[in-house]
TrEMBL record:
<protein>
    <submittedName>
        <fullName>Glycine/D-amino acid oxidase</fullName>
    </submittedName>
</protein>
<dbReference type="InterPro" id="IPR006076">
    <property type="entry name" value="FAD-dep_OxRdtase"/>
</dbReference>
<keyword id="KW-0560">Oxidoreductase</keyword>
<dbReference type="GO" id="GO:0005737">
    <property type="term" value="C:cytoplasm"/>
</dbReference>
<feature type="domain" description="FAD dependent oxidoreductase">
    <location>
        <begin position="5"/>
        <end position="344"/>
    </location>
</feature>
<dbReference type="InterPro" id="IPR036188">
    <property type="entry name" value="FAD/NAD-bd_sf"/>
</dbReference>
<dbReference type="GO" id="GO:0016491">
    <property type="term" value="F:oxidoreductase activity"/>
</dbReference>
<dbReference type="Pfam" id="PF01266">
    <property type="entry name" value="DAO"/>
</dbReference>
Length: 366
């Protein structure tokens, strides 16, 4: 019999791992919080993105690229299982620049990364003329872009919904609206996971993928779990005709329903996820500098959402030293890494011979 798992946290990270474990033949129960929890998986930007990742952490860049390359397969599989369309598009993306010197400095970082990786880590330098041929609406202040041929985007809400449907369709259990307050090993060596209402669940192994909730639950299982909150504010405009923007960038993309999504603020405001005029105005101003037509486009919605960030921004994959069989899985960029979490992480959890080497992602680095 394969070990049975409880996954604490049913955001995109927990769901990705749960789905992968179910496919590998494990019995899996996902325990997820309610609407009052902070849930990055419901407020993010939807990029499936390689560019700029791991510029000073080559192992993270390589891990991200493995995920990117598995993403088409993941989308096809989830769509086939559920009949949903995730609207995954992987046709490249831009990192826009307003200053030649800043762009050159970024390119030097890419060159250094390529050297460290010893591979053709993909990027192209596009000057303004090259960019205009693809995106004629670009504003006069944009000097060029670093083009990432493997970058793309997806509908992140459909991803989460589809994961949950797929998990249930292949025999997994998702229990939503529950609050895990403790987890420990019982006298038989199995894990006992306690809910606030007194209900107990038992399993051979536990994955802690509770987003910000890991900071509280982690120490109970022997993890440091040094995750902190970073707010991002996001705007969305009225719907525009398709292909108004040919490709996404790290700060602006046209979503599958037609609206232009604008974002990428980074604020350390604790757990305050409110949106503010000051920041949304700054985000909008920068977006208009990239695409001036946005000044005439109606804004329909804005929101704030909290990222889960480790001290160096790189994922944490850690087996507990005091409670063997408990694992902490935490990352920023959980959309991008979903394919790696579904297809590769289960091998690591099971200690398979061909498991990815995730030693450098351990908590020991802090
Ligand atoms: C503004 C913004 C933009 C982003 N853009 C991108 C992007 O473009 N691309 C990308 O790849 N990533 C992006 N991210 C990051 C991405 O959204 C996160 O990495 C990902 O959603 C994290 O998923 P998670 O499952 O770890 O956390 P969450 O989505 O926060 O889920 C954690 C879950 O754990 C549950 N939980 C917590 N504590 C408990 C408890 N005690 N008991 C039971 N359940 C519990 C909560 O209810 C919650 O559902 C963005 C994030 C933000 C905020």
């Amino acid at each position: 019999m394969k070990p049975e798992y409880i996954v604490v946290g049913g955001g995109v990270v927990g769901c990705a791992v749960a789905y992968g474990l179910l496919k590998a033949g494990h019995k899996v129960t996902v325990l997820d919080g309610g609407d009052s929890a902070h849930r990055a998986s419901r407020g993010n930007f939807g990029l499936v993105w390689l560019s700029s990742k791991g510029l000073d952490a080559p192992h993270y860049a390589a891990w991200t690229r493995r995920s990117i390359n598995l993403w088409r397969n993941l989308a096809d599989e989830l769509e086939e299982l559920t009949g949903d369309n995730l609207n995954l598009v992987q046709q490249g993306g831009y990192d826009f620049h307003f200053c030649e010197q800043e762009m050159a400095a970024k390119v030097r970082q890419y060159e250094a990364l390529r050297e460290q990786l010893g591979t053709d880590h993909p990027y192209e330098i596009w000057d303004r003329e090259r960019l205009l041929a693809e995106e004629p609406e670009i504003g006069p202040e944009v000097v060029g872009a670093i083009y990432g041929p493997e970058d793309g985007h997806v509908n992140p809400l459909k991803l989460l919904r589809t994961y949950i449907a797929a998990i249930q369709s292949i025999g997994g259990k998702v229990v939503a609206g529950v609050n895990v307050v403790d987890a420990s090993k019982d006298s038989s060596g199995r894990f006992e996971v306690l809910l606030e209402d007194g209900t107990r669940y038992h399993s051979d192994k536990v994955i802690l993928s509770a987003g910000l909730g890991a900071a509280t639950l982690g120490p109970k299982l022997g993890f440091v779990a040094p995750v902190s909150a970073q707010k991002g504010q996001v705007l969305i405009t009225e719907k525009l005709p398709p292909n108004k923007l040919k490709r996404p960038s790290g700060i602006i993309r046209q979503v599958d329903e037609g609206g232009i999504q604008i974002g990428d603020s980074k604020e350390n405001q604790g757990l305050d996820d409110s949106d503010t005029l000051e920041v949304t105005a700054a985000i909008a101003e920068r977006a208009i500098a990239v695409y001036p037509f946005l000044a005439q486009t109606k804004l329909v919605r804005s929101w704030g959402s909290i990222r889960i960030i480790s001290p160096d921004g790189v994922p944490i994959y850690q087996q507990s030293k005091t409670n063997q069989g408990a694992y902490l899985v935490s990352c920023h960029s959980g959309i991008t890494l979903a394919a790696a979490h579904s297809y590769l992480l289960p091998y690591w959890l099971e200690g398979a011979v061909d498991a990815p080497d995730l030693e450098l992602f351990s908590e020991d680095r802090f």
